[in-house]
Design the sequence.
């Protein structure tokens, strides 16, 4: 998969695309691949949330699924290994907080590419701090998707949209 494929998929689906969200490793690491395959058969794009121990930007349901996935042994490394063995009908975008990504260090981008992921959404990575990751992803044709929200000033929103690859993630409400 690639950022190019992600963009092409969304253009073909325009003006209406179904982007489905699943928590990585939920309800358990052994059941997750089958569920993901089913979701990918019906969605244009699948967003996989990387389980995290302190998901502050997520609502209660996603906090609970993340906690359960972690309790059952889900990890970013395990999720990427699972994705490497799958051939999915839809492009996959990972949403992850920065800490799990940093834990993989220099192997992050090669592992993302090997897993077939098309891009990343990192809600706690300011665009001003994203240059190195953006360049590394771009070199592998992977997207770094930027977020805008109702409180994003218009000029900043325009700059984030120009910088974003694949699509721009628009948060439609304040809070979680």
Sequence:
């Amino acid at each position: 998969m690639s950022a190019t494929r992600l963009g092409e998929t969304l253009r073909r689906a325009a003006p209406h695309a179904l982007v489905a969200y699943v928590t990585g490793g939920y309800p358990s690491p052994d059941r997750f691949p089958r569920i993901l395959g089913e979701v990918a058969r019906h969605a244009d794009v699948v967003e996989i949330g990387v389980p995290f121990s302190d998901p502050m930007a997520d609502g209660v349901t996603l906090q609970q699924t993340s906690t359960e996935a972690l309790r059952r042994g889900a990890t970013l490394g395990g999720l990427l290994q699972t994705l490497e063995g799958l051939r999915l009908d839809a492009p996959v975008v990972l949403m992850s907080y920065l800490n799990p990504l940093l834990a993989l260090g220099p192997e992050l981008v090669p592992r993302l590419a090997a897993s077939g992921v098309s891009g990343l959404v990192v809600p706690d990575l300011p665009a001003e701090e994203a240059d190195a990751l953006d360049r590394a992803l771009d070199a592998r044709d992977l997207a770094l998707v930027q977020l805008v929200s109702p409180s994003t000033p218009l000029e900043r929103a325009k700059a984030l949209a120009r910088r974003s690859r694949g699509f721009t993630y628009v948060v439609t409400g304040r809070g979680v």
Q: What stands out?
A: Residues 8 and 14 are 10 Å apart (CA to CA).
